[in-house]
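Table S5 (text form). Sequence records supplied for joint modeling of the two-component complex.
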Amino acid sequence: MRSDSMSLADLQRAMGSAVMMPLTPDEEMQQTAPDGRAMAEVAASFIAPNSRLTAFERLELYNRQYWLRVLGSLAEDFMALRALLGANRFQELSVAYLTAHPSRSFSLRNLGSKLVDWLLAHPEWTGRRHALAIDLARIEWAFVEAFDNGERTPLTLDQIATLDGGSKLALQPHVQLLALGYPADDIALALHSRDKKQTSEAGVTHQDEAEAPLRLPRLRRKPTWVAAHRMDLNIYYRRMDREEYRTLLAIRDGATLAEALDAGFAESRKSEASRPARVRKWFTTWAELGWICAPDLEQLIPA
Amino acid sequence: MVLMPGNRFNAFSNHGVGIGLRIPHYQHIFSRKPVVDWFEVISENFMVDAGRPLHVLDQILEQYRVVQHGVSMYFGSATEPDPQHLRRLKQLVRRTGTPWLSDHLCWGSMDGTYTHDLLPLPYTWEAVERTAERVRMVQDFLEIPVAVENVSSYAEFTASEMTEWEFLNEVVERADCGILLDVNNIYVSSVNHEFNPMDYANAIPAERVAQIHIAGHSRYEKYILDTHDHPVIDPVWELYARAIERCGPTPTLLEWDDHIPSFDEVHNEAKKAQRYLHPSDADLSPGTPDLHKHAGTLAGAKQ
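The corresponding C-alpha cell record, covering 606 residues in total, follows.
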C-alpha cells in the first residue's frame, strides 16, 4: 500500500513499527520486515528518496536514532546491571526487553519500570548470575523511584504516639522497600550518586569518549533488607532487619498498626521481651526520617 | 535587558536572548548568579512529583524568567494524547508561570506507544486538520499561548501534498497559534531535502512568530543531524538575520544539548544574537558573526 492511500494513523503505525524494529548487529536497519516484505519496499511505500539517500537509508536514520536514544536511557538507569553482564550482553537484553515493552509513557524516566518483572520471567538473559542481576535491577529501579517520587507531610513522633493498634498509616511515596539476596546497595549507591541526564530534543550520536569499564566488587550472598529513600534531595539506602522490613511492608500495603507488627514479627527469633523497645526505636527513626504519613483518605474508603 | 515588542503568541513579552537550562551549568548558575534574560526548560524534565528537579526549578524561578519547551506532546500524532501528560503539564505551567509554551510540529507516539523522537509529518490536508485540532485543544486546556516548532527532518513522505512551510502556515492559521521558528532546523532540513532555506524563512507568517531557536548541528557525508552540540554556523545566522528582519526583535534561545561547554561559552554564543536584534551595537570582533556580510546576502531576499 502506498502512503497516498494510507490514513495518517496507518502511516504512523507503519513508520513506528519500522523505527522500533531492532537493528542488525552492525547497527543497520534489517533488510526484511516481520511480515516478510523487503524493508526497501516497505520504506519506499511511504518515504521519498532524495539525490543522496534512498527511502531505506532515510528510514534507517530514524531506526538508529530510536535505538540510540532508548538504549542510552536504559543503560544510564541500570549501570550496575550493565557492569555485571557486560555492555554487549546488556545491550542484547535491552533490545529484547524494549521490544517486549516499548515505552508507554511520555517520559523516558519510566522506560525501565517493567525490567525487573521481565528479567524474572526471562532468566536466560542473566544466566548463572540471575539472582544478583535481579537484585541490581531492583535496587537501581528503586533509585529512579526514590529520586523524584512524591513527598507528603510526615507524621511527627508526637502524632505517632497518639496511634493505637487499629490505626492505619502510609509510607512516603519515595520510600522503596527491597528484600535482596545480595548486599547490592553497596554497588548501586556509588554508581548513581549523580544527576540523571536530561531529556532533550537533539538527535543523539554515539559517545565519543572512551568508556572506562566499571568493575564491580565481588558480592557474597547475604539476605539484605533495604529501603531506598530520599532525604534533603539525596538518595540513601538504609539497611534494616527483616522484622522492620516486614512491618514497613505491611504498613505500606494498608495493614493496621497491630496487623503490621504481627506481620513483622511472624517467624521472628527476636525475644518477646526485646520487641517493645525495638518498635519504639523503629518509630523514632521513621519519624526522624519522615517516612510515616497519614494514608490517603481515598484509601480508607471501602470500595 | 533587550526590550521586545512581543505579540499575542508570546503574551506580549519582552524576553530577549536566553539559553536552555542544563544540568552541567547548575553549579555555575547557583554560585555565580549570572545575568541571563531567561531560561528555557524542557517541560518533561520537571513533570515529576518531587525531588531535586523541582527543587532546582524553584530555585531558578526565584531569580530568573522561565519559558517551557516540550518534546513529547506530539501535536501530529493521530491517536489521542495522554490525559495524565496534559494534567502534569498544566501543573508545571502553573508552577513556572511560563508566558507561553512550545512543542514540536511532529508526531512520535501511536496507540499509546512512544518513540521519544520528533518524527516528521506527511504534509497532507488530513495531517493539517488533525494537528491543528490537537494544538487548539492543548492551547485551550493550558490556557496560555502555544507555539509550534518546525523540526529538523531526515525523511519526506510520498504522500505530501505541500511544502513544509505551507503545511506549517496551514496548521498555525487553523489552530490560531504561534510559531517557534527554529532557524537551525530550517537549515538542517533544507540540506537534507534540497530546498532553499530562505524560501522557508520568507514564507512564514512573521506576525505569528513567538520565539526563535538557534543551534548547532553535525554534518555527515550525506545528511545533517540536528545534534545541538556545536556553535551556530554562518548560514544559520543568515537565516536568523532574515527572520529578525521580517519578524522584528523576537525572544531568542540558543539550544546546546550535548558536549555542553562552560556556561560562559554557551551564553556568549547566545549573546551573538544581540548583534541582529540591535544592529547599531554591532561589534565585529573576532568570533562575532559578520552582520554586514549577512546583510549583503539578504539584500535580494524577498519579503
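Note: Chain A touches chain B through 62 residues (CB under 8 Å).
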